[in-house]
Amino acid sequence: MKKSDTDLREERISREVVFQGRMLRLERDTVRLPQGGKTTREVVRHPGAVGIVARLEERVLLVRQFRYPIGDVTLEIPAGKLDPGEGLLSCAERELREETGYRGTMVPLGTFCTTPGFSDEIMHLYLARDLVWDPLVPDEDEFLAVEALDWAEAVTRARGGGFRDAKTVLALLLAAERLK
């Protein structure tokens, strides 16, 4: 028997802020379950982010950077979090210029929840076309290397598990579909 969405909802009873950092907040909520019981939910609150597929002729610009939480270097699309009061398009334009040195015409690709099991982070994806060199100074705590990968190779890698970063896989596949 199919349940309605209202039969699945949980109701917050109380909230405790466990940690407030520069980029995120950790909350511990006590919730009432649909059948009446109680449980605890730990939730990471995040301001949201953007990711950009930057097409430069028949290549895509990616960034190679060390990701401390996984202890390894990854190859990803340019991306970054929203600053307070910043619009999505402004954030995408800023991040692209900071991370690659280029600006371009932004085309929305889609929006997704990164990890809805424990976080409210929403990521907005864009395709950047007609790129022009126009760099901004990168963030002082950001160390990365820009890499231009052949477009067809990047899409093949996205389809075949060649990237570890989920936003990169999704963004490349959405862009490939858009560019058909």
TrEMBL record:
Parts of the chain that traverse the membrane: none
Pfam families: NUDIX (PF00293)
Matching InterPro entries: NUDIX_hydrolase-like_dom_sf, NUDIX_hydrolase_CS, NUDIX_hydrolase_dom
Assigned EC number: 3.-.-.-
UniProt xrefs under Gene3D superfamilies: Nucleoside Triphosphate Pyrophosphohydrolase
The organism's place on the tree of life at top rank: Bacteria
Name of protein: ADP-ribose pyrophosphatase
